[in-house]
């Protein structure tokens, strides 16, 4: 018997910059020319069928006109595309076009595109660099900080993926104007969630400026984009691997993700999350951590954003309860929930523990009330 | 326009231990009881249809008898199983059985199993810990150090995967006795490669002790298992991300991987690699880095190990030449080869550059001579 020690202790620096502004295509190309990803000359622009013509084709053309190789790889828009099959399709398309390890992926689109493309980048040739060009508010809130990438499977959402940090994130607020109103409203759910867990100030700002936000006022949108980054960053920085604190970002997602799946993606992610947040305040109230008035304020803000706060009739309640068990926070077969405390805070149940076991009966009751 | 800096500089420690010996099943369970992977209680034992009954079922039973949850997830043995479809099958089977982020994967088997299971572990729930229990010489040489995991695609081998370090590696030499002789011989190819690139001493040891090795003599096998680790470690440590030096581990693989694919996996990985190594010495001789005598010594050692050194007739030479371009080392459409220098060394073409452009004509000529 012999042992051999493999010493792999080293410093890793995955730092990167998030740039928020209007129309950042030119800046992106400029940054690449200034060695954002070293001397790489091949760029796979990954996007969806909607964003392709709006942004991706243009970005690829700009890159080609600067002498780079750039191809657009596009898949059908929508959450149902966030699958291993789409990942495989993008990989095979890239391989067919001759892309190998010496390329960089540029994700251009919303949360589905950035989640999927970041995952592709993480496993293509065992990892190539990637850049996120976020065109939706949801992607700005979700994909800008945290490095979470994933696809869905029939049995659970976001369970197959990896942590992978982009080289840079661009948040193009001008792109929000191209969003259907329903998508824009859906994107606000993550921002409301950030306010609920961390910032009464942001909550009040959203409450007072919803009109400006919905008409894409530059100042208001830059403000919420910045607050999203700052809040998520403050959480993720303290807990990059999602062991404890980072679970607070799951507020509303236990029920939300389950509804999203059971709805067969008839509900957008933010819509499902909004219902999940409304369920969470009921839970928080029941556990004594929120007042009636605070609960109503949250539900009212979600309503102002035009988001649903009750479970649609077509959702089978029992199927929904069963689906809760596919949540990533489930441990030893027990449901676990993050619990909001007032507005702008969450409950820390013991040191570093931000999720608490909830019986199936309580979960069922809350769901039946909605 | 506003920018936000995400600072993600931190110390990562992926150090682990490789333990070599006879029958290490009990030691594995002992280590788990002693918190090898913390307080995890659920173990997904991933294996293939051959190793299942020989080792995996037994390991799972031992874990269950200690109060752990353990299930065996098995797929059909063979390189053709190293696909995204098999990865998906293992993931879905684990999800169905209720496995979530709070589990550990134990890969029990040869190189295909450890490559695939390590990849599954890297993306299951965005990463769960894994342990390699290597039952073949090839896995001992290949999977023990380096953290490379991957699957093959129709267009290229090992191009989809990631770097993922195991928590511990067990090299069970007793398991080599269960290998069909062809598999054992195949496994020796990586060891010969290690000798060729780094150690004249190991080369001479193999030359002088081939009989003992082939009859699984404990001392001889422990020696080569240890040397494999030491050589691979010395390379990988200096270049964890395969930017330069690590490419020397690809000696023989440019042609080898291509032959393996074109053969439709009629050739085992080690057999294909052996032919690749024989091709490489021809290339090295042609470029003036090896003498006739040195070339013959390498070819003779491969022969002693019972490995093929010429391309089978059923391989289409032109298809093989075309397939070379799917190699990971290809840059800007140019074939690149690692070149052996005498025995136990490789050519460093300029500082940190260990692969050189080779014209398609030269590659075709060498292939046609074999």
Oligomeric description of these chains: homodimer
- Strand percentage of chain A lies at 15-25%
Which chains make the largest contact? A-B, 68 and 69 residues
What's the gyration radius of chain A in Å? Answer: 21 Å
Low-confidence stretches of chain A: none
> What's the story with the biggest beta sheet of chain A?
6 strands, parallel
Task: Report mean pLDDT of chain A, rounded to a whole number.
Answer: 93
Count of distinct strands of chain A? 12
Explain how this protein is built.
Two copies of one chain form a homodimer. With 370 residues, the first copy, chain A, is of the alpha/beta class. Chain A is 45% helix and 18% strand. In chain A, the strands form three sheets. A six-stranded parallel sheet of chain A has the order 3-10-7-6-4-5, with helices on both faces. In chain A, α12 (317-323) packs antiparallel against α13 (360-368). The longest helix of chain A has 21 residues, at 218-238. At the A-B interface, β1, β2, β3, α3 and α4 of A face β1, β2, β3, α3 and α4 of B. β1 (2-6) of chain A pairs antiparallel with β3 of chain B.
What's the arrangement of secondary structure elements?
Two copies of one chain form a homodimer.
Chain A: E1 2-6, E2 9-13, E3 16-21, H1 25-33, E4 42-48, H2 51-65, E5 69-75, H3 84-96, E6 103-109, H4 111-123, E7 130-134, H5 137-142, E8 148-153, E9 156-163, E10 168-172, H6 181-198, H7 200-214, H8 218-238, H9 253-262, H10 269-286, H11 292-304, H12 317-323, E11 336-337, E12 356-357, H13 360-368
Parallel strand pairs in A: 3-10, 4-5, 4-6, 6-7, 7-10
Antiparallel strand pairs in A: 8-9, 11-12
């Amino acid at each position: 018997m012999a042992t051999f020690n493999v010493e792999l202790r080293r410093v890793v620096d995955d730092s990167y910059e998030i740039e928020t502004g209007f129309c950042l295509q030119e800046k992106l190309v400029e940054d690449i020319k200034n060695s954002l990803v070293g001397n790489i000359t091949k760029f796979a622009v990954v996007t969806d069928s909607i964003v392709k013509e709006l942004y991706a084709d243009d970005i690829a053309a700009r890159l080609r006109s600067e002498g780079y190789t750039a191809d657009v790889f596009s898949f059908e828009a929508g959450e149902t595309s966030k699958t291993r099959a789409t990942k495989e399709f993008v990989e095979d398309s890239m391989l067919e076009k001759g892309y190998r390890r010496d390329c960089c992926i540029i994700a251009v689109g919303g949360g589905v595109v950035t989640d999927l493309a970041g995952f592709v980048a993480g496993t293509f040739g065992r990892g190539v660099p990637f850049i996120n060009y976020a065109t939706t508010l949801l992607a700005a809130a979700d994909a800008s900080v945290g490095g979470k990438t994933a696809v869905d499977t029939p049995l659970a959402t976001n369970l197959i993926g990896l942590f992978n940090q982009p080289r840079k994130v661009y948040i193009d607020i001008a792109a929000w104007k191209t969003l259907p109103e329903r998508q824009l409203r859906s994107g606000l759910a993550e921002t409301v969630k950030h306010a609920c867990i961390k910032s009464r100030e942001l909550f009040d700002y959203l409450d007072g400026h919803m009109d400006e936000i919905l008409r894409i006022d530059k100042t208001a949108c830059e403000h919420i984009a910045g607050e999203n980054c700052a809040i998520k960053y403050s959480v993720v920085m303290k807990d990059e691997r999602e062991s404890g604190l980072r679970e607070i970002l799951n507020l509303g997602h236990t029920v939300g993700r389950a509804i999203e799946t059971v709805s067969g993606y008839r509900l957008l992610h933010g819509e499902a999350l909004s219902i999940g947040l409304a369920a969470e305040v009921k839970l928080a109230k029941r556990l004594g951590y929120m007042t009636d008035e605070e609960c109503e304020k949250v539900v009212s803000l979600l309503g102002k954003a035009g988001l649903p706060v009750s479970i649609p009739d077509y959702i089978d309640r029992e199927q929904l309860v069963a689906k809760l068990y596919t949540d990533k926070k489930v441990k030893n077969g027990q449901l676990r929930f993050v619990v909001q405390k007032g507005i702008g805070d969450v409950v820390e149940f013991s040191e570093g523990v931000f999720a608490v076991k909830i019986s199936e009966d309580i979960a069922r009751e809350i769901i039946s009330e909605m």
